[in-house]
């Protein structure tokens, strides 16, 4: 059995379980059956894709007699597709394992269970698609299944708006992709990827395709300013679906961009990298600034996804710049850093959304200012989330550090680029990425500290209980993967080398030849990193400090009241809140980015009313870009509504005038 047939059989199993969920919608064991089937199908697909990726086998193709009559439906498995199938199915397997426990708390499982396996199947099919028609059809199937999951809790405030905005942006993205593939197919209309790959594309067509792919794939991935649906839709979905949307679906969009721009479009122009680099740097900084201002835990994680998508696109922009100038080793480094971060982000973002779901299950709260002290009530969840926070903050020895370190190593190679525009742009974007990394660390100190440390700020946090073993198993599995990818990055980089060789024609040095499990992206004389030694050093240093303190510190005990920062009131309300942590960042960036204002209501002397502080923040992208467009559409719709009430004679006149106009346009065009 070929690898692509195995993958398609797993997809068929997922689709069959979606139908089975409808048939068994009233059964009490449906949740266990559906998530069990998707766990098994995802695990088999994961093992198959890993075996193909590491086995260095030939590309596998499959043509099904469906779709366009003269084309059929082409499905293909190569190195790039197999890597993204690893990401998709690892995310699907962990979400299914989590769902075995979390799903039993779902209020309306019949709104989730049929669409969850369909969503997984759609993402697999997008990656496997080998022609434009199949790709777009599967893309729409994936979008509609995820939209149904976003609308699963449609009665909750804001979820209907989230579903509507997501549907509009998804339709816009699909239109952009349709136009891009239409340009790639050309006058011959051959939509098979193999034919598109061998065709010659003019610079004008290549430019239009790049812009359309940034609009189509970028809107699904969450590039600024096309990100507006993401912080609305991702938190609205059930938590294990949020993990799939943030950790996996955004990567499927990135796969589409890589497949077209790096594979099908041919040799890029150097100026194209300037656009991708700039958008990536802007997206990274804006995403983490939005996250810093949030007090909703799931919205904070959604905005953090935007930041990480920006990091990935910045690395892809670097790869485009090096590839356009024939620097294959440097291009392979930047490209491998992007793919490594794709994998890493799927690990720690899924873990963090699972942790947010555990908190939501235990407390019913997403507002961090109503939580606190959960490290005592939910110790296992707290530990797993701590690993995720350290990983996403890019701290060694965990995986987030390795991929971002590789990216900065690629930035340091920019002096070899001949164009002055790139010599200026790359260091500037590198500075933006460094700023985003620092802000990410501050953001997740806030998220973890306010949610899990301190004292409970409400009854819900005070009475929380640890979640079920399935949820904990999924979280600890991802936490272990975050550590393993951080201390053993060499095998991951070597597994990515066939992909960089396939796409770019170059590869990084073989990391298995480096001593002591070190990695050297260019050469050991320039830079190297050893995650295992860093972990050992941290462990020895921490243990030595503990032994030293316990052996030589005074054993005398002295008890006294904790310092209350000048406040004598010992209530939990006196603790730092999410707004308190964000205030210094808000004062630096808020005026420019959010038009932030602090409104202080101070009663006069003798008035017993409490003083109040109200913070006003504005989403300038939404208010200045999307609201005017929505207003113009609404105004036009009101005016055009009159066309529904014309007489038969006027309708015939309108049809006649339209026909004459089209004939005139055709005559002039000819």
Automatic annotation (TrEMBL):
Protein's GO biological process: anaerobic electron transport chain; ATP synthesis coupled electron transport; formate oxidation
Membrane topology: Multi-pass membrane protein
Pfam families linked to this entry: Proton_antipo_M
Keywords: Cell membrane, Membrane, Oxidoreductase, Transmembrane, Transmembrane helix
GO molecular function, one term: NADH dehydrogenase (ubiquinone) activity
Annotated Gene Ontology cellular component terms: formate dehydrogenase complex; plasma membrane
Transmembrane segments: 6-25, 32-54, 80-100, 112-128, 164-184, 204-229, 270-293, 300-322, 334-362, 383-408, 428-449, 470-488, 529-549, 651-669
UniProt subcellular location: Cell membrane; Membrane
Alphabetical list of InterPro entries matching this protein: ComplexI-like_HydComp, NADH_UbQ_OxRdtase, ND/Mrp_TM
Domain NADH:quinone oxidoreductase/Mrp antiporter transmembrane: 129-414
Name by which UniProt lists this protein: HyfB protein
Native species: Bradyrhizobium diazoefficiens (strain JCM 10833 / BCRC 13528 / IAM 13628 / NBRC 14792 / USDA 110)
Gene it is expressed from: hyfB
């Amino acid at each position: 059995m070929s690898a692509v047939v195995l993958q398609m059989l797993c997809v068929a199993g997922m689709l069959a379980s979606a139908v089975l969920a409808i048939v068994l919608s009233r059964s009490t064991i449906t949740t266990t059956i559906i998530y069990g089937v998707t766990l098994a199908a995802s695990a088999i697909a994961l093992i198959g894709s890993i075996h193909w990726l590491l086995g260095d086998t030939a590309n596998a193709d499959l043509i099904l007699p469906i779709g366009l009559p003269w084309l059929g439906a082409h499905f293909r498995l190569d190195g790039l597709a197999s890597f993204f199938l690893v990401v998709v199915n690892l995310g699907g397997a962990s979400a299914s394992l989590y769902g075995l426990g979390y799903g039993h708390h779902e209020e309306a499982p019949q709104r989730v269970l049929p669409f969850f396996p369909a969503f997984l199947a759609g993402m697999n099919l997008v990656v496997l698609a080998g022609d434009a028609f199949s790709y777009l059809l599967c893309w729409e199937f994936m979008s509609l299944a995820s939209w149904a999951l976003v609308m699963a809790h449609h009665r909750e405030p804001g979820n209907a708006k989230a579903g509507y905005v997501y549907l509009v942006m998804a339709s816009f993205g699909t239109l952009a992709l349709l136009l891009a593939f239409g340009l790639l197919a050309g006058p011959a209309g051959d939509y098979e990827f193999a034919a598109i790959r061998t065709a010659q594309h003019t610079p004008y067509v290549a430019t239009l395709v790049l812009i359309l792919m940034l609009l189509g794939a970028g809107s699904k991935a969450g590039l600024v300013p096309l990100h507006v649906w993401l912080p609305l839709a991702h938190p609205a979905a059930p938590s294990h679906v949020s993990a799939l949307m943030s950790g996996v679906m955004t990567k499927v969009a990135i796969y589409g961009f890589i497949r077209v721009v790096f594979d099908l479009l041919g040799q890029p122009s150097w100026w194209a990298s300037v656009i991708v680099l700039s958008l990536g740097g802007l997206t990274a900084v804006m995403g983490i600034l939005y996250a810093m201002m949030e007090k909703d835990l799931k919205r904070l994680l959604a905005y953090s996804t935007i930041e990480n998508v920006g990091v990935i696109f910045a690395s892809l922009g670097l790869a485009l710049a090096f590839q356009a100038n024939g620097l294959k080793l440097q291009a392979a480094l930047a490209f491998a850093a992007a793919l490594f971060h794709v994998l890493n982000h799927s690990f720690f973002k899924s873990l963090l959304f699972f942790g947010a779901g555990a908190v939501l299950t235990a407390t019913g709260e997403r507002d961090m200012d109503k939580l606190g002290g959960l490290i005592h009530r939910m110790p296992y969840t707290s530990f797993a989330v701590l690993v995720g926070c350290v990983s996403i903050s890019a701290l060694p020895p965990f995986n987030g550090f390795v991929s971002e370190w590789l990216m900065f190593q690629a930035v340091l190679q920019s002096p070899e680029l001949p164009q002055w525009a790139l010599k200026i742009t790359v260091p500037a974007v590198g500075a933006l990425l460094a700023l985003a990394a620092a802000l990410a660390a501050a953001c997740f100190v806030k998220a973890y500290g306010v949610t899990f440390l301190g004292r409970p700020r409400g009854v819900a946090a005070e009475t929380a209980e640890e979640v079920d073993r399935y949820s904990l198993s999924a979280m600890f599995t991802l936490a272990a993967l975050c550590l393993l990818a951080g201390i053993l990055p060499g095998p991951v980089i070597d597994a990515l080398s066939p992909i960089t060789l396939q796409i770019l024609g170059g590869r990084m040095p073989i990391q298995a030849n480096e001593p002591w499990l070190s990695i050297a992206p260019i050469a050991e004389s320039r830079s190297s990193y050893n995650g295992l030694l860093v972990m050992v050093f941290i462990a020895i240093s921490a243990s030595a400090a503990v032994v030293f303190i316990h052996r030589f510190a005074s054993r005398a005990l002295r008890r006294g009241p904790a310092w209350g920062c000048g406040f004598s009131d010992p209530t939990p309300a006196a603790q730092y809140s999410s707004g308190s942590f964000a205030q210094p960042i808000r004062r630096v960036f808020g005026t420019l980015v959010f038009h932030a204002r602090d409104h202080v209501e101070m009663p006069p002397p003798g008035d017993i009313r409490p003083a109040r502080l109200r913070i006003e923040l504005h989403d300038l992208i939404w208010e200045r870009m999307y609201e005017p467009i929505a207003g113009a559409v609404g105004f036009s719709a009101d005016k055009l509504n009159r066309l529904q009430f014309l007489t038969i004679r006027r309708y015939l006149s309108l049809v006649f005038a339209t026909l004459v106009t089209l004939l005139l346009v055709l005559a002039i065009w000819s």
